[in-house]
Amino acid sequence: MMGWLGNRLDAFRGRGASAATVPPMDGALRPNTLLDGARVVLRAEQPDNLVLSNGAVLFSSGAEVLRLDAGAGTSSLVRRFEAPVACLAAAEGDLIAAGLEDGSIRVFRQTQDIVTLPVAGAKRLSCPVAMTFRDPATLIVCQGSLANSPGHWKRDLMQRGSTGAVWQVSVPDGASRQLASGLGFPYGVVASGDDLIVTESWRHRVLRLAGTGAAVPVLADLPGYPSRIVAAASGGYWLSVFAPRSQLIEFILRERGYCERMMREIEPDHWLAPALSPPKNFLEPMQGGALRMHSILKPWAPTRSYGLLIRLDERFRPLESYHSRTDGARHGVTSCLDLGSRVLAASKGGNAILELPPAQDPSP
Predict the structure, then answer these.
(1) What are 55-70's pLDDT values in tens digits?
(2) Handedness of CA 164, 165, 166, 170 (dihedral sign)
(3) Scanning 48, 190, 313, 318, which has its CA 20 to 30 A from the CA of 81?
(4) Is the pLDDT of residue 272 over 50?
(5) Angstrom distances, CA of residue 78 to CA of 68, 74, 94, 128, 179
């Protein structure tokens, strides 16, 4: 009762979860152009899901899983599916799991036929958007939404979806167990001892999910929507942020009548909503709004897309960040892989896989 009353007061006063404010990018998140200055390892169509499998770097592009040859700047086909690949995970050896846009999960080896994983007791396990192996027999799956498929993430955000869940699935027989529910699009997961670290995109935060099922925020009020999170070779984590928050979008999310009409009458690409890439035609919103001056796009102009990768320490404090600003081309960073000697990042909106400088030692 008190929680309900508090939410109503917050909505009336415009504070708490109903506030339309967005934290500034400052300190370790101060904007720069490091993503745009990073070396392009490979140009590919919407690359995503960087993983390391048996010494090889794999990534997804549409319905294909590809092997990256960074030295030659080329890729080779590993598997092609009948639906786009939404997420990948790799275990020891060459065991790989792929979650597809149609909701199915395939577990296979690079040298063996594809096997569809029967997920027993998880009829509602759909919309896989992130996965990780605890061990070769245990797969952790983030279900983004019950109402929308991975490709319809924008609709789920505008509907203020909170039907996401985290599942534990046994690879041999498909037996499953729900670890957490009621999440706002969990879009990344990494194991940390007995706990799981999960990103919750629509609530702009990172959670620690204990073995007891309790979810505790460890990083909150991010200036963007977080996606995948991976361990850093030197300790801590790399956090991908696929789109920026803005006061305009926060305001629209609270104007339900306007939002519902927008979704009903306008094509999704033209919604006032986050995007993975900069505007490409005159029908997209925010063509005004002081975006340009003398035909030059200003780097500090309001934007629906952005490139951001954050390095966190073991206590989830931001140490450094890599940006592609409004006038940049490396937007929509959805995945990262730390190989120790180099760090790779997938700019899904920029159609490129980038190589960043090695992570610096955070100690003074």
Answers:
(1) 999 999 999 999 999 7
(2) negative
(3) 190
(4) yes
(5) 10, 13, 11, 20, 31
